[in-house]
Amino acid sequence: MDARFSELLTPFLKFLGEQEITPDASLRELGLDSMQAIELLFAIEDTFGVTLPDDDMNDTTFATAGSLWTVISAAIDAQGAADGTRVTAA
Amino acid sequence: MSAAAHATTPPAAPVAPLTAASLAQRTDQVAAVAAEHLARTDRDASFPVEALAEMRRTGLLGLLVPASHGGLGGTTEDVVTTSIALGRTDMSVAMIFAMHCQQVAALVRYGNQRLRDELLPEIAAGRVYLASVTTEAGKGGHLLSSESALTARDDELLIDRFAPIVTGGEYADGFLVTMQSPAPASPNQVSLVYAHRDQLTVERSGDWQPLGMRASHSVALRLTGTVPAHHVVGEHGDFRTIVTTVFAPMAHLGWSACWLGTAAGALSRVVKLLRGPQSRGRVNLDSELLLTRLSQARQRIETVHALLAHTQQVVATTDDLSVPRVQLLLNSLKITAAEECHQAVDGLIDAVGMRHGYLKDSPTRLEHSLRDLRSAALNYSNDRLHLVDGKLALLDAEVRLA
Q: What keywords appear on the UniProt entry (chain A) (predicted)?
């Protein structure tokens, strides 16, 4: 996962405390509220310049930090392929 | 705790393969008993113990229990059909049935093998009526957080829980209770736990004197006790999955069915009154105002029926119910059914006027139906659902309809 990703997620996780965000961290348990989903999408767009596909707006995507990052990475790759430039999502 | 709660448990009827006719017959039997007692249960705000006993006797309490566990092996569609039918007679009885079925659906799908083997045959035999304990002071009907934490000790779970509204709680044989998971990382880790009545101390507080839904007897309870560890339903902390896949769809389909039945029953009684011999020559059936109001009531009922049938179909055929378009459909069903069914009956009161619209002793029972249906918008508040739907609408820029 990208350091920018952890940084953008942190404000949404009111129960995170001093813990580090790991890929298997449950976003719901850490305090992500479905009412904040649109704000989270804006943060993702602003940070990575990608829009997540509508088909990925489901509980599976938002289950863990890792599952969300997988979807973001795919969107970054897809956009890189479309632009003809390769952006590697670490 | 009154002795009456446990006094009426005759043996369940033998289980035959479920057909539409046999389901309708069982439903008719329950509706007949409900009809016999509804004036009193409404007047006294008392639980319909006779109708519950008939649900036990006819096997309807085990409608969703698979035949392999001795139940009728019914489907969500059967729950909807039955809830509509019972709602035509008594909305409280219908809601008691629909909410019990919601609990059973969660147990069938998420109970572990041991709990299923212990409990499902008891439900099928009519010995266990389940109440839902999800409300909590200060959070409204919000399902996905809880302030009361379960304590795990050896192989047991300690329950200590206050709930301001538990429909049928004084008469339930078992409870499905939401609580914070043991040692939670956050209040968002909620678990669902089954507790049998004899595993709990059940203390009631306060009185039950509502506007409508008076027979639902939805009292405040404090539950304390200890249950075995295998009584957790689904994974600890993962109640959310149960809500998305079972609780929310079953609640919105089941409630809407009860409300639709109540409105349809009201219209039916009005039409029968208008066509009855006592109205001959006294009611002008060419009145454009009357015809328009009847049409409008029917239109509202048709709208809810169509939306209910469509939503039921989507729920039955969609793998992932968490996507915005499906959530929006489920919430729209609940909001629309609550509004339209209430307004249908309200309009019928205008259609027939003071005598048959407003007085308690009219055979139309519009006064009773209207009071009951007033609860629909509040029973998981429409206002709250609109806020959720507004956010969900923003997530679906293409407006793709389920």
A: Phosphopantetheine, Phosphoprotein
